[in-house]
Amino acid sequence: MELLLISIYLKGVLKMGYNVVIVDDDESILESLETYIKTKEELNVICFEDPMKAIDFAKINTVHVAIVDIVLPQMDGLELVKNLKSLNALTYTAVITGNSSIDRVLTAIEYGANDYILKPFNLDDIDEVIETGLKMVCKWRKVLKASLSTEE
């Protein structure tokens, strides 16, 4: 487990900026979020309509924040969250939904979602998720860095 955390930490440090992945089957949502997030410094936004492509991306790149629509045609968004978390437990994940039933919320938590965005949402909601996610990423990086330096 310790070796896995170290490799996740180092993998993220080698890239400039933070990777924000958006997965939604609605092209207009992807385009508007991509345009908006690209204005932020140090954020790389990567958009996917196909959740399998997001998983392939996450296998070779660090995903710092993932924003995932729950309803996707190829795969349930919660399954995607579960897959992303299995690749990197430190990925901050948020799910987008128009349905906030208690069962879906509990399943989202069980699968590792860190946040929930209800439709209709605004850009302040997206900012809040990204800001919270990056704070958590930075906090874990500090903890891992401190752990590595005490072991030397």
Brief descriptors of the model:
152 residues; 18% strand; five-stranded parallel sheet; alpha/beta; single chain; 54% helix; 6 helices
> Cα distance, first to last residue?
18 Å
Count, helices: 6
- Beta content comes to 15-25%
Mean of the pLDDT scores? 86
Topology as a string of helices (H) and strands (E): HEHEHEHEHEH
The value of Rg in angstroms is 15 Å
Adjacency order of strands in the biggest sheet = 2-1-3-4-5
Helix content: 40-55%
Query: How would the global form be characterised?
Result: globular
What structural category arises from helix and sheet content? Answer: alpha/beta
Q: Which sheet architecture does the biggest sheet show?
A: 5 strands, parallel
Low-confidence stretches: 1-15
The count of β-strands is 5
Oligomeric state of the chains? single chain
Question: Can you walk me through this structure?
Answer:
This protein is of the alpha/beta class and 152 residues long. It is 54% helix and 18% strand. The protein is built from 6 helices and 5 strands. The protein has helices at 2-13, 27-37, 51-60, 77-87, 102-110, 123-151, and strands spanning 18-23, 43-48, 65-69, 92-97, 115-118. Strands 2-1-3-4-5 form a 5-stranded parallel β-sheet, with helices on both faces. It is globular and about 45 Å long. The two termini are 18 Å apart.
Write the layout of secondary structure elements.
Blueprint: H1 2-13, E1 18-23, H2 27-37, E2 43-48, H3 51-60, E3 65-69, H4 77-87, E4 92-97, H5 102-110, E5 115-118, H6 123-151
Parallel strand pairs: 1-2, 1-3, 3-4, 4-5
Helix pairs in contact: 3-4
